[in-house]
UniProtKB/TrEMBL annotation:
<dbReference type="Pfam" id="PF05962">
    <property type="entry name" value="HutD"/>
</dbReference>
<protein>
    <recommendedName>
        <fullName>HutD protein</fullName>
    </recommendedName>
</protein>
<dbReference type="InterPro" id="IPR011051">
    <property type="entry name" value="RmlC_Cupin_sf"/>
</dbReference>
<dbReference type="InterPro" id="IPR014710">
    <property type="entry name" value="RmlC-like_jellyroll"/>
</dbReference>
<dbReference type="InterPro" id="IPR010282">
    <property type="entry name" value="Uncharacterised_HutD/Ves"/>
</dbReference>
């Protein structure tokens, strides 16, 4: 299927955090010519409380696939609770933040985009059947939490838990998703260069 690729969860190596509090598995990314991240999607297992890594010039959008995560931005603000039932939480990647699992380990879905170059969103799709239009300039990813069938024209893909489907920019028409559990739909759009 041109422009659409299955990214199986089994093919993602685990990268241990420096603080030992969890591991990250990269789903997909795009870098610029200098090796800096334009965008990155990853899934992390958070086992212990600790500070998030500092990413200058990056905006983040974090969703929780399993568990409950408290995000503490300090400064006397009330921590933000993120759960699978709550919309993804956006925040700058270069502000201090700590994450604390609330009641057990957490699995999260993390989108990072280069500020001023890309804009990224993630939204939850309920179980069932939905047809999703494809924005021509955007890169899209679908991340399944259960099993899902995805159709694009005459082609079909079957996704298992935590598998992803990458839809390259320029892919035409729409996709139809039939899912037994929640899926997450990610859209990454390049921003116009300023003169």
């Amino acid at each position: 299927m041109s422009g659409i690729r299955l990214l199986p969860s089994a093919s993602r190596p685990a990268q241990a955090w420096k603080n030992g509090g969890g591991v990250t598995r990269e789903v997909a990314r795009q870098d610029d010519g200098a090796g800096d991240i334009l965008w990155r999607v990853s899934i992390a297992d958070v086992r212990e409380a600790g500070p998030f890594s500092h990413f200058p010039g990056i905006d983040r959008v974090l969703a929780v696939l399993e568990g409950r995560l408290l995000l503490d931005f300090g400064g006397g603000t009330v921590p933000v609770l993120v759960t699978p039932e709550i919309a993804a939480h956006a925040f700058p990647g270069d502000v201090p933040v700590s994450g604390t699992p609330d009641g057990g380990p957490v699995t999260d879905l993390n989108l990072m985009v280069r500020r001023g170059r890309m804009r990224g969103t993630q939204r939850q799709l309920p179980p069932g059947t939905v047809t999703l239009p494809l924005t021509p300039a955007a890169t899209h990813l679908l991340v399944a939490t259960g099993t899902a069938q995805v159709m694009h024209g005459d082609d079909a893909h079957t996704l298992g838990p935590l598998d992803a489907l990458l839809v390259d920019a320029g892919t035409a028409a729409s996709i139809t998703v039939r899912a037994t559990a929640v899926c997450w739909w990610i859209e990454i759009v390049p921003l116009a260069e300023r003169p």
